[in-house]
Amino acid sequence: MLEANDLCNYYAIDETPGISKRDSIIRNFDFLEDPDLIQKLIEFTNGNITTITFDIPQMHCSSCVWILENLYKFDNGVINSEVNFLNKTLSVKFREKETTIKKIVEQLDSLGYLPNLSLDTNRDDKLKNEFKRLYYKIGIAGFSFGNVMLLSFPEYLSYTDLVTAEFQNIFNWISLALSLPVFLYSASEYYISAFKGLKKKIVNIDVPITLGIFVLFFRSLYEMFIGGGVGYLDSMTALVFLLLTGKVFQNKTYDAMNFERNYKSYFPIAVTIKKDGKETTIPVDKLEVGQRIVVKNNELIPADAILISEKANIDYSFVTGESQPVEVFNGEMIFAGGKEIGQAIEVETVKEVSQSYLTQLWNSSAFNKKHESKIETTVTFVSKYFTFIILAIAISAFIYWVNTDVNLAFNAFTAVLIIACPCALALSTPFTLGNSQRIFGRNKFYVKNTSVVEKLAEITSIVFDKTGTITETLGSKIEFIGEKLSKDEQNLIKALVLNSSHPLSLKIASLLSFNKKLNIENYSEETGKGISGIINGKNILVGSRKFVSNKNIEENDISTNVYVSIDNKELGYFRITNIYRTGLKEIVSSLIKKYKLFVLSGDNEGEKMNLLNYFESEKSLFFHQTPHDKLNFINDLQNKNEKVLMIGDGLNDAGALVKSDVGISIAEDINNFSPACDGIMDAKSFKNIKEFIRFSITSKKIIIISFIISFMYNIIGISFAVQGTLSPVISAILMPISSISIVVFTTIATNFMAKKRGLL
Amino acid sequence: MNVEKFSYDNQIVKYFTIATVIWGIVGMTVGVLIAFQIYLPWLNFDLQFTTFGRIRPLHTNAVIFAFVGNGIFAGVYYSLQRLTKSRMFSDLLSKINFWGWQLIIVSVAVTYVLGITTSKEYAEAEWPIDILIALIWVAFGTNMIGTILKRREKHMYVAIWFYIATFITVAVLHIVNSIEIPVSLTKSYPIYAGVQDALVQWWYGHNAVAFFLTTPYLGLMYYYLPKAVNRPIYSYRLSILHFWSLIFIYIWAGPHHLLYSALPDWAQSLGTVFSLMLIAPSWGGMLNGLLTIRGAWDRVRDNPVLKFYVVAITAYGMATFEGPMLSLKNVNALAHFTDWIPAHVHVGTLGWNGLLTFGMLYWLVPKIWNTNLFSKKLATAHFWIATLGLVVWVVPMYWAGLTQSLMWKEFTPLGILQYPNFLETVLQIVPMYVIRSIGGSLYLVGAIVMVYNLFKTAQQGSFVANEAAEAPALIKENNDKFNSHRWLEKRPIQFALLATVAILIGGIVEFIPTFLIKSNIPTIESVKPYSPLELEGRDIYIRESCNSCHSQMVRPFRSETERYGEYSKAGEFVYDHPHLWGSKRTGPDLHRVGGKFSNMWHYLHMQNPRQMSPGSIMPSYPWLLEQKLNTELTLNKINVMRMLGVPYADGYENQAVADLQVQAEGIADDLLNSGIVVESDKEIVALIAYLQRLGTDIKVKPAENK
Amino acid sequence: MSAIIVLIGFSLFVALVFLGAYIWAVKSGQYDDKYTPSVRMLFDDNKIESEKDKHKNT
Questions:
Q1: Are the C-beta atoms of A69 and A3 separated by less than 8 Å?
Q2: How far apart are CA B608 and CA B600, in angstroms?
Q3: DSSP strands (E only) in A677-759
Q4: I need a surface site. Which of A244, B457, B498, B653 has the fewest CB within 10 A?
Q5: 3-class SS at A89?
């Protein structure tokens, strides 16, 4: 195709161009003919020419740019196409009569650049316009500032030069002309914000800034045209220019930090991919576009994908809040965040995993808890009174000096207004906690949002689930007790069990052999009980004894037993010996000094002796716990004013996880993401639990310190300002420096402490 | 289908490339010649057409406007077409640009040699050529803007912005600086005088450096460097920032050429501050360029083009650091008027402009002749020779500058000048001049090697005059509205005319206020206009470019007042159209020379300087003793001067020639008394009259030294 | 010294022209993408190029 269109340069341009094409799937783009959808996707049309912007995350090199901008060679209807490499978008302009969106998308797909067809493009445009406006303002402010400064030089340097006096008037008028756009336009956002705040009876930080600018401007007018002097227009334009530039720098700094967190953090979910007919698990951040993955019952679909299997039942409650499952057929799209209900399905991803998207869903789900952050309340309190205090100080300074030296009085007034900065209040918390969150992520502990870090510092009790939390699934021993299973029987059991993501199911599956793919119907899984399904007409049940054959279990059974029956005939059980995670003893001993520890298990008391080795007191061990029991237990603790951290596996303790102040689920190469939890911890990081809690406490301390630093800065700054020795320009420079330095301090402090604790 | 097929005009690139090479050799050869002349005065051949004063501006103009100028055009015409994916707006304008520019160069060469000059540095061309320059420049700009308007690539790459800035600013600079009233077809006087003329001249001079030697080359760097190394520019964002910050600041740095002069203090300091601010954007550009090669430094090893670029960009960094340093008052006090300044200039011109041009040529010629470079080895050899030449040129000049300056300033313990004889300080640095001339020769040799290499490359290649290309057109959404601009875009000549008119209107509108504002240089009562004879003598001084080697600005330092007399005051220059402050002291300052030496001394000195100052390196001017003074224009000159504000009485022009003859006879009689027989109508008499007038208006006892 | 007014006038005039150009550039989206142009200028789309590329070494 490249040769035919004379695009052989494609390979000359980059050494590793393009996307490798896997076995192609016949994708159906008919939905792109729907006029309503088309309306939503396009940016502009006049009936003749249409523009549409595609999101193409696959582009990664200069050859991609080149080929995408040469699209017109593949499709006559395309007028031109423009790449924005950093945003990974492609803007295509085409003639309606000669080609269609569907054809263009098919073309892109065949080249390996399937676009992501989401409807969320409006947000980007708004951001773009906002940025543009900021650049206009800075450009005008900078231009004016430079030239006004030039014209102010005579005043700085020669006092007796007669020549200067002649020109002073002309210079004043020119300075005024240059300053007007700055005063009226560039600084306008400060006025607007101050005004809006005042309307709501809130005095925000833009009020003193606005006041400062006004004072400089009108004072200058007075000085220049009535007082016969030179005014302060250079300071005014410099102030606005620096404020705006400071804003740009701040935004960029914040963006850089956010960017890091969103795209580089570890998201501890594993997916099962199908490679060369075999199934393996890989961490979700290694998932590539175009890969086939197996999604089992209750597992999350991590990225937009096309259904390969015949049918699927998708629960979009995570995304839309509706728990009514949607039936999806082969070839149709399933969106990230949906959960499969029923038997396992196979899908092929068409987009990269967007961890930020999943996190967004996670945070917006119905599981958000109420939390009263102590820090937040302090912040709100202080900021209310901060501006009033500043204004009071400024006015007092003015009154103090006005009889001695009017100039000094004005200087002091404006300087106080400008240098005072409550930035720490706004910045410390999000930056410190954000950085801690990032550090946790590096250590494979992914928390939902920053308030989790704060809450973690406050806990007093810790509740552990047993199976899958403090016990290992992968390393445990398994054996079948009963008559040896035939090949057919193994097939049937495994076929059933493969649809479940329960750790015990996986364990059983690993034991059995399998050689035929079988059709399954009526697959169903009941939490805490077992799974069932009809295969080849036979009814298979796997689970607790009560579930499988309505009998009670024998006493003195100390292992976890999973019973099996085919067509109501009990065949025996799988005995799985519990193996406790390495380092559990150390973890418990380190925690028990400070926290109250409890273990809740759905199992029988068989493990009691083993557990006592670790947990010492019988009173902290509870067995035969149903999910409801667990929930109540947490509730009781909280009624006693305990702050509870619950660590579970997210399968049958969802309710308890939600109820607890912090709910963490342990992930061990399985996809059991539960939106109920506040954080996911990789099993390998479990041993660091004490360090994580300790670090959260340290983070809080760092925030307090940064408050103190900001307070000191304000005290020192204001004490200089009231003396009138601080020029407004210097204040303008110091203000953004202070906010940036707070940010830098919190970042460095958290990083340093993390290094010291071995977390970085 | 909207793909348009067109072709790039390579023919015009070829023409400009050849012109660049030829004029490069010419300009450098003249440079080498004057470098030798400066310590071997016999190389002036005692002929007025080959004298140092007349040849030096030939060198400066040739290398700046002929070599760099054609280089700019070659580079711009090639890159602009490809960046805009469109052929040049008008082939006719391209040709006008080319032939017009060469005509300008030839005219300049002829006129300078004949002594037709305005004396203003880098703007020595007289008014008819100035007009021609304006016209050709507008043709260039129109062609360029037209191409940009009909481009097929929506985004304007940063190089294009630099080209636009060059065009607009140079247009304004040239027009403002060249406003002069003609006396005849070959003579004019600027409307500015004295201090004001100096300010305008150096506002122009420095901005010419900025917008002719720097911005277009930065544009070329942003195109040719990525192309040569096949990687994108390190930070495109930085280049955007670099461009806009540069363009807002550069205009103001001019006054740094006038420190310690009679320019008001505050204007001087302004120049200093803004010059310092320039370091940031300039170095931004340098870093952006050098960092583009990060990770590909190994390619520099076997690619001569990249070698040239790397040293060129580094030289740019050096020069743009040194410049602001030189604008600091204390540094400037030491360096001004010495050879340090040419050293600074040549770091920029030989290093930045020269080497970048060579690199560009080595890349461009094989490209448009569709072949490989004839010999990479020769190109690499050229690189080393050129770099060596550059160093050997520049280092001795730093040494010379410092040495001479320190000698000028040195006092004995008793408080008198250690080196009262200026010549002594000159002789001290002649060995440096010798070394410098070797450096220059090396540089020229390298360039000759390049000519051979490029010639053989062209020979083995096959030139394609029109390179086929295709690209989809840019469609504007509102096709229906009548767009006057687009109507204009299709008519190049009309566009050019309108552009000229626009620029001229802008210029005129700016101008009217000046005539309404009275100049307020504090006038000194005793300062009077030049007599007609002195005026003619002054014009001879200008004709022979005496100001190339002699300054007329005594600075307020004790070492200068001891040596020359009272320091120069602004009010003394009010009638100087143009100012003759000079920028270099190859010879001593002349502002207070009036009355210091006898007429005989001047006569013998001009006949052969070595008669009065043994060892002097000044050329001889025997033709001044032979040629008759032309007084046909004296009447016009008086009229024009009066128009410019010099208070000659009404009707004085009719009296002028008579007065001139009376004064001339007085001088001839005096010379006769000293034993020299000379007709009063010889040029030497006029020159002597002028020299004897210099600095005598304020009556201060002249210092007793030679 | 009235020349200084002239020079300031002209310089401001030129600077204003460029301010206008700056605003136009931001407005028309010239700086929406501050990266791709640096890559785009490296491409040579011509047929002649692809054949010559094999012989090229600069």
A1: no
A2: 12
A3: 679-682
A4: B498
A5: strand
Residue B88, pLDDT > 50, answer yes
Angle at which helices C2-27 and B492-516 pack, to 10 degrees?
140
Q: What is the rounded distance in angstroms from the CA atom of residue A514 to the CA atom of residue B313?
A: 69
**Strands A644-648 and A461-465, bridge-based pairing:** parallel
Position A67, amino acid? I
The DSSP secondary-structure symbol of B23 reads H
Are B258 and B268 in contact, with CB atoms under 8 Å apart?
yes
The pLDDT tens digits of the residues spanning A453-490 come to: 888 999 999 999 887 788 887 677 888 888 888 888 88
CA distance A304 to A119: 13
Tens digits of per-residue pLDDT, B536-548? 999 999 999 999 9
B contact residues 228-267, partner A, Cβ 8 Å cutoff = 232, 244-245, 248-249, 252, 264-266
3-state secondary structure B293-313: CCCCHHHHHHCHHHHHHHHHH
Find the distance separating the first CA and the last CA of chain A, reported in whole Å. Answer: 49
Q: Per the CB < 8 Å rule, is B196 touching C2?
A: yes
Task: Name the helix (H) or strand (E) containing B704.
Answer: none
Say yes or no: C41 contacts chain A, CB-CB below 8 A: no
| Alpha-carbon span A363 to A451, nearest angstrom | 11
Provide the β-strand partners of residue A312.
A328
Confidence of residue A261 (pLDDT cuts 50, 70, 90): very low
What is the ipTM metric for this complex? Answer: 0.77
H/E stretch holding A609: helix A608-615
Residues 6+ apart with CB under 8 A from B562: B411, B416, B417, B703, B705
Q: Are B547 and B596 in contact (CB under 8 A)?
A: no
Distance from CA of C49 to the nearest CA of B (A): 9
Q: What's the number of CA atoms in the CB half-sphere (13 Å) around residue B532?
A: 27
Please count the other Cβ atoms lying within 10 Å of the Cβ belonging to residue B223: 26
Does B155 contact C30 at a Cβ distance shorter than 8 Å? yes
* DSSP states along B523-547: PPTT--PPPHHHHHHHHHHHHTTGG
Q: For the purposes of burial, counting CB atoms within 10 Å of the CB of A4, is it exposed (0-12), middle (13-18) or buried (19 or more)?
A: exposed
Subunit partners of chain C (3 or more CB pairs within 8 A) = A, B
Amino acid at B643: M
Show residues of chain A in contact with C32, CB under 8 Å: 84, 128
What pLDDT, on a 0 to 100 scale, did the predictor assign at position A320?
65
Bridge partners, A574 (sequence order) = A480, A562
- Cα-to-chain-centroid distance, residue B154: 36
Average of pLDDT values for B660-672?
95
User: pLDDT tens across A437-448, in order?
Assistant: 888 888 888 887
A497-511: string of b/e by CB count within 10 Å (b at 16+)? bbbbbbbbbbbbbeb
Residue A579's closest CA among A510, A645, A507? A507
Tokens of B674: 């000293």
A609 CB neighbour count, 10 Å cutoff: 9
Q: How far is B469 from chain C (nearest CA, A)?
A: 6
Looking at this protein, which amino acid is placed at residue B253? Answer: A
Rounded Cα distance between B337 and B555, Å, is 11
- A569 SS3 class: strand
Q: Could you tell me the two tokens for A405? A: 């030296």
Cα Rg of chain A (Å, integer): 33
Q: Write out pLDDT tens, residues B103-158.
A: 999 999 999 999 999 999 999 999 999 999 999 999 999 999 999 999 988 889 99
Give Cα separations from B694 to A85, B543, B668, B687 (angstroms): 67, 17, 19, 11
Instruction: Say yes or no for a CB contact (<8 Å) between A151 and C1.
Output: no
- Report residue A349's pLDDT band, with 50, 70 and 90 as the boundaries: confident
Whether residue B254 contacts residue B323, with contact meaning beta carbons closer than 8 Å, is answered with no
The residue whose two tokens read 């076995």 is A23
